[in-house]
Testis-expressed sequence 10 protein homolog (Cacopsylla melanoneura), 628 residues
Amino acid sequence: MVKTGHKKFVKKEKARVKLKKSYKTILPKGLNVTNTEFKVKRIVIREQLKERGENELLSAHRKLNVKELMSRLKHNNSAVKQDGLSGLFEIVTLNATSLIKSHFSSIVDSVSSLMLDISGNTRKAVVKLLSAMFSQVTEEELSPLFEIIVRYLACAMSHMDSGVREDSLLIIDILLEQCPLLTAKHRSLLPHFLDMISSQTRSHEQARQLTVDLDSRTTTTVFRIKVLTRLRSMLQAIVHSSKTKPGQSNVNREVTVSSDTRHVPLYSSQQHAQPFVYDKKVTSNQTLADVQSYTQMLMPLLMDTFIEVVADRKQAGSDIVVEAVALLQCVVDVILNVIHILRQCDTGGVAWFKQTYGRSLRDHLFTGRFPYTVGSWGSLPNKNAKQRRKDCEAALKLLNTSLDLQCTGQNLSLCLLAFQLGIDSPVNLDYVLTSIKCCRSLNPTILACLDAIVSKSDLSQCITVTETLLSLARDPGLTFVVFPYLYNIVIRVDVKKLAKKTRVEDWLDTLPTYLCQKTPIPGSVINSIMTLAARRIPALQNSIDSHIEHILDALPELEIKECERNSEPELSYKRSLARLIYWVQEWDEELSEEICLALRKQHFGPLTPYVEDLWLLRNETFEKSQGG
């Protein structure tokens, strides 16, 4: 018999698994109420309620101490690291230096390793913190920890990540700005500058070739300019440290003498700066060879870098782009510093450099190119407008000056290089003379060029320069501008030989008249005149004798530039001028009586006691000469 649909449905329902219904009541009968009781267990977080000391250093935002903030620097999360660096920055900037010094070593040790952090924001926070810390301590206090910083910095300069390498340059800026002498002693950093822009070839240890970093945030040219700018600053710090003079022996000192004291030193002096050695394993007698070795690696890279940027000579001539201007300045400055270091190491160092690289420099930097001008605001070909503008702005920022379309500063630096290496060319001398005529202020590079000309002992060039300067000195607006240049020549050249071909004696005769005028006079001019007076040059001595009365009359009212009235610097210059009394040769009783009368009337004001001592001393000398 066929089953109907209803029977099939009933059979299917019986086969399904059914949940059993519970007939048990939830609560016993009569207790059908809600139980609101609950149990609580006390949870205690360690050191959450720890009391802070009254003098404990805490961050302004989260109120964390130095130890807690440094523990965050070891966290894997970059945001936590940045929070710790931010807290340390608050503590360093908001508290007194004396309170921070106790934590200084531990902070430097913890922060230095973050120079290698993969996060760019973390590295920027490290730069910010180190800059704030180094500005509050001396180089002596930083010296024990400096080796740690240098080691991590060397790793950052040779890191695989281009961002870490670029940010390492910011650390170098901080070190050179805050502690230049200490940085100059750690010359092991110098080879790493070359590693940032080049790599060693397999054929020779000293042979290097330029590298291109495709992952860098900046173009190759701009990055090389950045590296060479820091190398230039590093070499300048080395040159400056080598010029450091011994400590003054006339500094007042308090000496405690006890029963154990056997002697008291009359004077003390500091040690001179260490010679140039970028490898600490090199002995002192190998210093020149070490500099030559580094120079042999550096010079080909400088020439190749400049050749890549400058256009073909036949097409562009002396016109160069903005990036080439900045690169040219870096290259020339680096070479000048290397020459200076070679000169300090050995007298034959400059001759070796001239023989090795003189012709190469002349062919690549001077022949067919000098003087340089800016021919285009744009950058190299095959670049879009946005990248061109970005590169130009970066190059101008690295130049640290406004753009000069005539490249005056770069051309003068090239002239200085030519004079020091003996690259003879009348174009160089003509350019310096033209620059003197156009310049309305003292230019240190021009002054260095004149030093180089005088050092060559070429009297003909000295005569040419002197005649040009004497003609410019007649212009009242250029009197004090030209004065340092003429003084630099007169002080180093035989005046008798120079006077036969020029009218330098007429210029010397006019110098005392500057001291009688009512117009303000620079203090440097006063010091220079006193130096020349001590040399007893006849032309100047005769003029001093004839103008001494007018000089003393104008002395109280004499105005000195950049000095406040009756300030100590002004009185110091005036006391120096008063010493001309002692240098007067034609001393007689009439002049002595006039000075005595002025002293009685208190004509010299605060200078009266000093002038009186000079007057008594000069009278005593005069009486002895008369008695003899």
Q: What stands out?
A: The chain has four domains: 56-180, 186-243+284-421, 424-502, 522-628. The chain is about 60% helix and 0% strand.
